[in-house]
Amino acid sequence: MPRATLHRGRRASEKLQDMAFAQYIGIFMILVVGQALADFKVSTQDLKVHVGDRKSFELILTEPLSKNASVQINVQHALLVSTDPKGISINENETNWTIHVEGLSAGHSIVSINVTPSDIADFSQAFVRVTIEKSDALYHVSSVVGWIYFLAWSVSFYPQIYSNYKRKSVVGLNFDYLSLNLVGFIMYALFNCGLYWIPEVEFQYFSRYPKGLNPVQVNDIFFALHATFATVITIVQCFIYETGSQRVSTTARIIHGIFAIFISICLLLAIIQTIEWLQFLYYCSYVKLSITLIKYVPQAFYNYKRKSTVGWSIGNIFLDFTGGILSMLQMILNAYNYDDWDSIFGDPTKFGLGFFSVAFDIFFIIQHYVLYRDRKDYVGIPGSDYGESQENASTSDLS
Predict the structure, then answer these.
(1) Which three-class secondary structure state does DSSP give residue 57?
(2) 3-state SS class at 56
């Protein structure tokens, strides 16, 4: 056989092999893509049901499976929730099933699925967060209470702003308290805005808590940004109106320096990817919590040194006190309605901070109406040069 003919035959054989290999790859890719398109979904990932009642959700398969499979319905807390059915056998061309959920006892649980064989479809997003409540009326009362304390806290900044404007003076308002408040609200705004608006941070959060909810809501963002804005307005007043001789104290500057170094180190670690940005925002929130614990102390001590609350708006305190009491009331209502007392006693941070703020509000009220109620003028502090211009200011005008 001529050498040229043999060469052409070999090339034709190799070409046929390449074509066959390409066909195998094509079939494999079709199968992979077909499997990738087969996902289990649910009609809702949040379901609320009363104790003793039944509700349902739809389990949906986006594409028919190429072979039979079985689905096991898993309940995180079997004493709280039961499902019907508890398992499903899937035949070809079936894509939709109704799952009934019955509330057995108040609380929170997660209903999820397991699929066998596990590699036939993606079921990672096929879960439902179930909230079992004792009373729908309590739910609505809790919502109303939440909006009232949100409004009370939002409005609480303005009595002090108005008092400063009316007096054309910020004497009596402690600058340490004001500076700590600003830093705290900036940290709070960073945490809320970052977790709500930055996709990378939100992705990191759901990577940690795959079946959780984003804890930041729109009203949280509004409050944080509004509180920062109102505090900035108050600080601007400090540059416009009479201040006396008061300045931010050395102690407060040291505290600010510590916070600044801490946040700078955390920011650097996030930039070089040693920690996640989500963790950086958590560190910002820790600074906010720390400030909440200490920010009232300078103002309380300042009132004590002056033996007067003149210049420190009692309206601000009453609104803050109202917000704090209603915040704790809402936590108690929710704990009872969902039988979730661990939210208070298991993790007492939020409740403890609310209680701590209310305790200081009560102390300020005692200072204003009991300890220093007869003080109608400013009492000079050694080393200060204010007092003359405000000598005749009355307590009623400054509240």
Answers:
(1) strand
(2) strand
On the question of pLDDT at 33 being above 50, the answer is: no
- Say whether pLDDT at 167 is over 80: yes
Residue 126 to residue 64: CA distance in whole angstroms: 16
Q: Is 208 exposed, middle or buried (0-12, 13-18, 19+ CB in 10 A)?
A: exposed
101-112 pLDDT, tens digit each: 999 999 889 999
Given a cut of 60, whether residue 34 has pLDDT beyond it is: no
What gap in Å lies between CA 53 and CA 330, rounded to an integer?
A: 24
- Partnered with residue 74 across adjacent β-strands are 112
Q: Which of 395, 358, 379 is nearest to 304 (CA)?
A: 379
Indicate the burial class of 330 (C-beta count within 10 angstroms; 0-12, 13-18, 19 or more): buried
Percent of the chain at pLDDT exceeding 90: 58
b/e code 129-165 from CB counts within 10 Å (16+ = b): bbbbbbeeeebeebeebbebbbebbbbbbbbbbebbe
Phi-psi region of 53 (alpha: psi -120 to 50; beta: other; left: phi over 0): beta
Q: Which residues contact 259 (CB under 8 A, 6 or more apart)?
A: 183, 287, 290, 291
**Cα–Cα dist 335/248, whole Å:** 41
Q: Please, which residues have CB within 8 angstroms of residue 202's CB and are 6 or more apart in sequence?
A: 195, 196, 214
Comparing 51-60, 182-191, 237-246, 349-358, the range with the smallest average pLDDT is: 349-358
Averaged pLDDT, 4-15: 51
Block residue for tokens 């407060």: 252
Helix, strand, or coil here: 84? strand
Tell me if 364 sits within 8 A of 309, measured CB to CB: yes
List Cβ neighbours of 274 (8 Å cut-off, separation of 6 or more): none
Would the pLDDT of 395 be above 90?
no
Q: Is 169 helix (H, G, I), strand (E, B) or coil?
A: strand
How far apart are the two ends of the chain, measured CA to CA in Å?
113
List the 69-75 sheet strands across, edge first.
46-50, 127-133, 107-116, 69-75, 87-90
Cβ atoms 163, 202 nearer than 8 A:
no
* Integer angstrom CA distances of residue 345 from 331, 333, 341, 359, 360: 11, 14, 6, 18, 21
